[in-house]
């Protein structure tokens, strides 16, 4: 219900508008927000004389960058559900329903929320729907969308334009159209609820989704509250809502303090004395009285309201008579007012009543007019702190060029403010914003040089030609509502993981795993029988100088078994020259093979990544075999003596499971001659243990991290990466910006999702 425009101020200098509109609002105007206003206090003390009312406590907000990181993770799922969201929008647009008649729409919302795992309640306040999703300790955030349409004939020419008809509250058959964007509000509401339900690892708290009926009649929110919205389902810590408007599609508009005007609708019935049109002197014509009232009301704003104040008086309905040659007995008017303060609103109501009664008396009407207030809504006054927090999160996610601050309130009205309990001693803080919906080509072609001139010529809300840009508007609405919820629900701690999807950390680059005395086994490998099976690594004892390295504690290390019959005090023979051991990590950059008994084997294993504990090598002594399960190594060639290495494999031929040498580098030296297939250096951040002269390399320390994937065509027999490990791209991948098919996204934040 927004037949107003906050940007209709002529004479503004030309600005760069296309998704870059910037406004500067004086700080005192942002901070001096008027207190909330309700039906209960209308007509009492003027609003500006009120002391500042108590404002509800705003829950703690997550850092905007952290909220944006959560948003990046959540919105990675948007492409999966967007076709369904778009389909729901098109269906609702083709099948609109009038206020208090939203049965089909409510059923669709309830079904969607139920499939997403919400606790669903229907019939709240008539046709309202409430969905509750509890996800641990945290604040309760209310997301609201309205569902009803308008009695208006659509003339957009869209292939999914509405041809529906309905019966209004007076029993009249009328066309029905979603001319105020409530179809988009509902589709974005269920879409955001679905996204948050699928990414519960990113947030903690309770999500309350409210699909509200009857916003156009300004009584849907109050009806839901009267039906126990907060007493039955819990009082939220903050309420969030949005509305689409005529700004360029994808633009998000915020304003602290008053963002929407107060509204009042008066129904007026004029009584005359009818008769034949040929003898008007024998009648009291109510049509003439009504016409005089309409003309006189135009002087209220022009002559009775200060030029520094905003006021609107509109006669939207005038009905009288049935035939041209009959003077009717009655005339019927409906008058709507808008104001930003209670003082102005009170004056408008009293002026209308004074003029109506005076004109009837001046015409000699024998009966006093009937004046009934049928609708009334207070100002929508955003909590300044909450608005700043949500706007900051939107800027961190969308970018500064997509988020603006409105210089003036909309003169449209909403009943969303009722959810803030304006008459309560402890009101609920709320934030309400706008999402642009005008197609960019339509905006560019609109006449006018300034944004205000363009907006004046574009069809806006409540127009038969209002046709939002479908995809961009829906994507922006989905992201804006999701980011609003994550502003308060987003998890503060880093490194969260649930349901196999890692949260984006608050860091720019991956970090090595922390060292610990005895880290637990990673879950990337399933325990197998001891015969050659790979096992989780749990830790190892401290190094001892002068002795062999101790075996790891717990499960045995993935390594090849010794050959049958080999003595336990003799190490197994090395593999062919230059071939690394299956399942081993590559050596650190710039280091050769580790010497063993003055002669380094060709398959020297380089130091492992950080986090895998190990013992220290012993000077001058061979490494003992590991305890527990036999080591998984290839047996030596038949007949080869145990103390003589086997002949090398063909030069440059890699062994299965090994990494080929990086381009331009030689092989790791073995007996002063490096093999041709030396392995590449490990990824950055993987510390290498310094080998001890005369001893084998130390086993890995701490928990393993993700090793780089092998080049295409080379099998990889190392265990899969543990949780929280981020693959490090190769040089070719860094240059091309691509990753392997099996790699997970890097462990640093992606750039913000763009529409």
From TrEMBL:
A biological process from GO: diaminopimelate biosynthetic process
Keyword Hydrolase: yes
Domain (Peptidase M20 dimerisation) ranges: 265-361
Pfam families reported in the protein's UniProt record: M20_dimer, Peptidase_M20
Pro residues composition bias: residue spans: 511-520, 545-577, 603-612, 620-651, 677-686, 694-726, 746-755
Compositionally biased region (Polar residues): 525-537
GO MF annotation: an example: N-acetyldiaminopimelate deacetylase activity
InterPro entries the record matches: Amidohydrolase, Bact_exopeptidase_dim_dom, Peptidase_M20, Peptidase_M20_dimer
Keyword entries, A-Z: Hydrolase
SUPFAM superfamilies tied to this protein: Bacterial exopeptidase dimerisation domain, Zn-dependent exopeptidases
Region (Disordered): 499-755
Name of protein: Hippurate hydrolase
Organism: Haloactinospora alba
Organism phylogeny: Bacteria, Bacillati, Actinomycetota, Actinomycetes, Streptosporangiales
């Amino acid at each position: 219900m927004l037949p107003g425009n906050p940007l209709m101020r002529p004479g503004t200098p030309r600005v760069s508008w296309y998704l870059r509109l910037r406004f500067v609002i004086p700080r005192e105007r942002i901070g001096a927000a008027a207190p909330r206003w309700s039906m209960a206090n209308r007509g009492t003390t003027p609003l500006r004389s009120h002391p500042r009312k108590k404002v509800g406590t705003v829950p703690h907000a997550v850092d905007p960058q952290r909220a944006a990181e959560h948003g990046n993770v959540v919105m990675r799922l948007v492409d999966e559900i967007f076709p369904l969201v778009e389909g729901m929008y098109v269906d609702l647009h083709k099948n609109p329903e009038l206020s208090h008649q939203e049965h089909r729409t409510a059923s669709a919302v309830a079904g969607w929320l139920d499939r997403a795992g919400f606790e669903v309640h229907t019939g709240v306040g008539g046709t309202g729907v409430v969905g509750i999703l509890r996800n641990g300790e945290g604040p309760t955030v209310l997301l609201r969308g309205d569902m009803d349409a308008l009695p208006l004939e659509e003339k957009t020419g869209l292939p999914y334009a509405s041809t529906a008809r309905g019966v209004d509250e007076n029993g009249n058959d009328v066309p029905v159209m979603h001319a105020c964007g409530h179809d988009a509000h509902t589709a974005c509401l269920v879409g955001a609820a679905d996204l948050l339900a699928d990414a519960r690892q990113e947030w903690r708290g309770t999500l309350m989704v409210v699909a509200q009926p009857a916003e156009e009649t300004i009584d849907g929110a109050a009806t839901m509250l009267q039906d126990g919205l907060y007493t039955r389902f819990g009082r939220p810590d903050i309420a969030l809502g949005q509305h689409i408007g005529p700004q360029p599609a994808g633009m998000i508009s915020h304003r602290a303090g008053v963002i929407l005007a107060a509204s009042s609708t008066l129904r007026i019935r004029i009584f005359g004395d009818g008769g034949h049109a040929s003898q008007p002197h024998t009648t009291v014509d109510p049509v003439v009285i009504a016409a005089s009232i309409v003309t006189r009301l135009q002087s209220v704003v022009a002559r009775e309201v200060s030029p520094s104040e905003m006021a609107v008086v509109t006669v939207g309905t005038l009905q009288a008579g049935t035939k041209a040659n009959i003077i009717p007995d009655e005339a019927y008017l409906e008058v709507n007012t808008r104001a930003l303060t209670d003082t102005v609103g009170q004056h408008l109501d009293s002026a209308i009543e004074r003029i109506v009664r005076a004109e009837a008396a001046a015409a000699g009407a024998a009966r006093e007019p009937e004046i009934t207030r049928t609708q009334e809504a207070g100002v929508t006054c955003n909590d300044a702190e909450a608005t700043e927090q949500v706007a900051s999160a939107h800027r961190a996610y969308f970018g500064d060029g997509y988020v603006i601050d409105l210089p003036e309130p909309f003169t449209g009205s909403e009943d969303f403010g009722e959810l803030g309990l304006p008459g309560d001693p402890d009101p609920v803080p709320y934030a309400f914003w706008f999402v642009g919906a005008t197609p960019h080509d339509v905006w560019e072609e609109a006449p006018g040089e300034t944004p205000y001139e363009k907006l004046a010529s574009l069809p806006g809300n409540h127009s038969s030609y209002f046709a939002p840009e479908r995809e961009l508007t829906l994507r922006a609405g989905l992201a804006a509502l999701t980011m609003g919820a994550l502003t308060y629900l987003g998890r503060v701690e880093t490194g969260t993981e649930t349901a196999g999807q890692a949260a984006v950390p608050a860091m720019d680059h991956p970090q090595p795993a922390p060292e610990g005395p005895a880290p637990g086994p990673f879950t990337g490998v399933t325990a197998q029988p001891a015969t050659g099976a790979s096992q989780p690594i749990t830790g190892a004892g401290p190094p001892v100088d002068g002795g062999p390295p101790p075996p790891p504690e717990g499960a045995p290390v993935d390594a090849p078994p010794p050959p049958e019959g080999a003595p336990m005090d003799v190490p197994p023979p090395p593999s062919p020259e230059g071939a690394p051991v299956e399942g081993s990590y590559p050596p650190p950059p710039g280091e050769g093979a580790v010497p063993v008994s003055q002669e380094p084997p060709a398959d020297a294993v380089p130091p492992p990544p950080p986090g895998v504990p190990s013992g220290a090598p012993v000077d001058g002594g061979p490494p003992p075999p590991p305890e527990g399960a036999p080591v998984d190594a290839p047996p030596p060639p038949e007949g080869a003596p145990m103390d003589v290495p086997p002949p090398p494999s063909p030069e440059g031929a890699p062994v299965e499971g090994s990494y080929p040498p990086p381009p331009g580098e030689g092989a790791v030296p073995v007996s002063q001659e490096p093999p041709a297939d030396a392995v590449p250096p490990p990824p950055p951040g993987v510390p290498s243990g310094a080998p001890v002269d005369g001893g084998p390399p130390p086993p890995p320390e701490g928990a393993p991290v993700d090793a780089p994937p092998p080049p295409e065509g080379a099998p990889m027999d190392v265990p899969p990466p543990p949780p929280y490990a981020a693959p490090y791209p190769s040089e070719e991948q860094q240059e091309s910006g691509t990753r392997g098919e099996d790699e997970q996204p890097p462990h640093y934040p992606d750039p913000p999702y763009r529409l």
